[in-house]
Amino acid sequence: QVQLQESGPGLVKPSQTISLTCTVSGGSITTNYYYWSWIRQPPGKGLEWIGYIAYGASTYYSPSLESRTSISRDNAKNTMYLQMNSLKPEDTAVYFCATGRDISTGLSMYLVKNYDYWGQGTQVTVSS
Fold it and tell me: DSSP of the chain, one letter per residue?
């Protein structure tokens, strides 16, 4: 069973950059057809997909966040990362990493319902 664990600083100031880590166990982040996403949930709101890195290392981002976001991975550490810059108070949320499988084009992997395994989430608060 795949397990994911997020980690990162809990509190950052506006305009700063945050880096989050997702450590994966029980499966490889390079396994064919698996997509590895970052998803967040602001307080009192629904889940928002941020972007993914696919098994082949291609990336795809939410258009609303693409200019401020980068997702990468370290195959040797079986770990993926999220970097988001120019943070705003509205970026305050619980940030999750998740994985799901798609054997076709992966075009549907912006839908959070397609993710089967999730981490517990890490709180990120953007405040001065």
Answer: --EEEEE--SEE-TT--EEEEEEEESS-TTSTTEEEEEEEE-TTS--EEEEEEETTS-EEE-TTTGGGEEEEEETTTTEEEEEE-S--GGG-EEEEEEEEE-SS-STTTTSGGG--EE---EEEEE--
